[in-house]
Amino acid sequence: MESVLGQTAGNLEYYILDNGSADGTGDIIREFAARDARVHPLAEETNTPMRRFDPEFLGFKDLEYDYWVMLDADDQYKPDFLEKAIAFIEETGAGIACVGSDFIDGPTGRELGKRQNPAPGVLDARALERFFPESYQFLRTIWGKLYRKSVIESLDWDRYYGFNLGNGRDTLFVFHALERVEKLAILSGTLHRYYLWPNSIYKTWNNARAKAYSVLFAEGERLLKLKAGAVSPRNLDFLLLVYMSSVVDMMNPLFTSEIPQEEKIAAALEIFSSPEMRLLAKTKVSQEAQKRVLLDAACSFLKLDLVRNSEFAREAAELCAALQGG
User: Fold this and answer.
1) How far is Cα 130 from Cα 107, in angstroms, rounded to an integer?
2) Which terminal CB of the chain, N or C, has fewer other CB atoms within 10 Å?
3) What is the DSSP letter of 117?
4) How far, in Å, CA of 263 to CA of 254, rounded?
5) Cβ–Cβ < 8 Å for 152, 95
6) What is the mean pLDDT of the chain?
7) Alpha-carbon distance 108 to 175, whole Å?
8) Beta strand 111-115 with 39-44: parallel, antiparallel or unpaired?
9) pLDDT tens-digit readout, 17-48
10) What is the pLDDT of residue 326?
11) How far apart are CA 114 and CA 194, in angstroms?
């Protein structure tokens, strides 16, 4: 909160949500609100991962504002984030301005790396097919960006929430926002600090993850078709690589989760029988990487006690066929 309220461009309104916390977060927010009229507390009694955050729902649709920004509860913006992002978006006429991030290990505070553009640049969103793979690292997250009010007001929020995603909702939001802009500005350097934690939601399993990554694959195709009229072979290969990377990230949370083994088998079968995996198996995209993914999944699968149970022989055969792309 201090990183937001301490911005050098201080003309802002800060809507902050206590999303069903049980650790005193609400008290901290109310203390800040009592000291600073820019802070507007919001609260949910229980945690709601897909909580609406559009202006109409939060009650500031009619507020006079020019830009819109998001920030996760455990991250920070550097003091001059707004000042520099606003100046660059005004200079370039872009609809969205992206900034680089420092990646910080949450428990130790140690810097793990950076994601940044070496030089400031402006990309023509109508030619997205030319720079989609190279710029994708800046397209995945809702935070680290400044959005014009016109972009936020033009979003089809009902369509966005209709997907009801947990994992991947940030990327889905950015895809939908990019549909509505002509220019994307990327600043050089880093103006955002992203903290990584061992218990991150990204490292835990939920049954909607496989669906979420299929949605992102389809919405990525949709975005490229809207901007370029078609998905080039290069960008299709890239979307498949992103999907395969997501499968890699899903395997450990799935097989180390506490859900029943029969549910693990069913989830793995769904993942490896997906249209995206079948399409990937027919391509020449990173075949060695594909083999490593399949081998790791097969090893995890064969460790399950139920695989040796004749009751699950059919499911085991189906999954093995899926792992072979058959």
Assistant:
1) 39
2) C
3) B
4) 10
5) no
6) 86
7) 33
8) unpaired
9) 888 888 888 899 999 999 999 999 988 888 77
10) 46
11) 10
Region 264-287: mean pLDDT is 81
Reported in sequence order, the residue ranges of the chain that DSSP labels E, i.e. its strands, are 14-19, 39-44, 67-68, 76-77, 96-105, 111-115, 121-124, 145-148, 183-196
Percentages helix, strand, coil for the chain, rounded to the nearest 5?
Answer: 50, 15, 35
The CB density around residue 44, as the number of other CB atoms within 10 Å, is: 12
Q: How confident is the model at residue 11 (pLDDT cuts 50, 70, 90)?
A: confident
Distance between CA atoms of residues 228 and 126, nearest Å? 7
Determine the Cα–Cα distance for residues 291 and 256; give it in Å rounded to an integer: 21
Give residue 272's pLDDT.
Answer: 82
41 beta partners: 16
β-bridge pairing 183-196 and 96-105: parallel
C-alpha angle with apex 323: 320 to 326, nearest 5 degrees? Answer: 85
- Which amino acid is residue 230, in one-letter code? A
**Cα Rg of the chain (Å, integer):** 22
Whose structure tokens read 């793979």?
Answer: 133
Residue type, 294: L
| Separation of alpha carbons 12 and 10, rounded Å | 6
Q: Nearest Cα to 70, choosing from 12, 135, 10, 11? A: 12
Identity (one letter) of the amino acid at 189?
G
Q: CB pairs under 8 A, 24+ apart, for 106-115?
A: 106/74, 106/195, 106/196, 106/197, 106/198, 107/197, 107/198, 112/196, 114/190, 115/190
Of 58, 102, 55, 95, nearest in space to 77 by CA: 102
- As a three-state string, the secondary structure of 21-90 is CCCCHHHHHHHHHHHCCCEEEEEECCCCCCCCCCHHHHCCCCCCCCEECCCCCCCEECCCHHHHHHHHHH
CATH 3.40.430.10 for the 53-197 domain, yes or no: no
Q: How far apart are CA 39 and CA 251, in angstroms?
A: 41
Residues in the chain: 326
